[in-house]
Amino acid sequence: MNEQSDTDNIQRKKIEALHGGQKIQKLESIISEVPLEIRLSHESQQSGRSVQMAITMRTPGHDEDLIMGLLFSEGIIHQKNHVARINRIEKNVCEAILDKDYHYDFSLLQSRMVMSSSCGICGKSNLEAVEFESRMLSWSSKCSIDANIVLGLPGAMLAQQSLFHETGGVHAATLFDLDGNMMMIREDIGRHNAMDKLIGSSLGFDLGKTFTLVSGRVSFEICQKAAMAGLPLVAGIGPASSLAVEVAEQEGITLIGFLKDSGFNIYCHADRITFN
């Protein structure tokens, strides 16, 4: 699938501002928020027979990662090769075509999901739809990471947040190894989109010995997606929500909040953090 260019990520607009007590005009970089329609079909179906799965407000770029991550975290696919290909139908319309050898019950798509940049589950048809069954249990990971390495991760993430540096308006989701080396970073106006992009780009990798850091708070969605992907260590620059803590406790995720270079909170499963 052809990706959109980096120039689609940012729009530039002449604005007025107050700076140093003076009214000025300047060219401002504004992060793009654009709807992406995601359609789902199967190789065994006749051409053109697709179902609208979701419309999500996202920052253009890494759309294929976003779609793969969403399909995975929603339980529609269980591994990368369950998707035969992703076609871009129009600039902001993509179709994911499931492999002919993979069976999926399309009746499980209860309703069309319209997801804003701030909430990825607001379009679900009922409250029970937020329940999930993880298949790559974080419990199985016996990894650990030194607290001093953890303290250095916010600075490492910030240094690579190129869209944030230019616009100040995006979230980031980052994957590190246990030595603190950055493996991957994805940015998007929506924190759930950034997480889906990260997971989608990581499908097929062993994630049982990795550390995931997100730039904002840790919500239920972030923990749910982490649990689906088998991510054992999840941290946020901001706090964790009560439901995120509940999910992390249940799924065996070490959950960290308020991560700064001076300290952090550990909400559950603290045994994976070592102090030397």
Please tag this protein with its features:
276 residues, alpha/beta, Ubiquitin-like (UB roll), Cytidine Deaminase, domain 2, 2 domains, six-stranded mixed β-sheet, five-stranded mixed β-sheet, 7 helices, 34% strand, flat
Can you walk me through this structure?
The protein is an alpha/beta fold. It has helices at 63-73, 147-151, 153-159, 162-167, 191-202, 220-229, 242-251, and strands spanning 10-19, 22-31, 34-42, 51-58, 83-90, 93-98, 113-115, 145-146, 171-177, 182-188, 210-214, 233-236, 254-260, 263-268, 273-274. The protein has 2 domains: 34-130, Ubiquitin-like (UB roll) (Roll); 138-274, Cytidine Deaminase, domain 2. It is built from 7 helices and 15 strands. A 6-stranded mixed β-sheet has the order 10-9-11-12-13-14. α1 crosses α5 (191-202), α5 (191-202) runs parallel beside α6 and α6 (220-229) runs parallel beside α7. The relative contact order is 0.14. Residues 123-130 have low confidence and may be disordered.
What's the topology here?
Blueprint: E1 10-19, E2 22-31, E3 34-42, E4 51-58, H1 63-73, E5 83-90, E6 93-98, E7 113-115, E8 145-146, H2 147-151, H3 153-159, H4 162-167, E9 171-177, E10 182-188, H5 191-202, E11 210-214, H6 220-229, E12 233-236, H7 242-251, E13 254-260, E14 263-268, E15 273-274
Parallel strand pairs: 3-6, 4-7, 8-15, 11-12, 12-13
Antiparallel strand pairs: 1-2, 3-4, 5-6, 9-10, 9-11, 13-14
Helix pairs in contact: 1-5, 5-6, 6-7
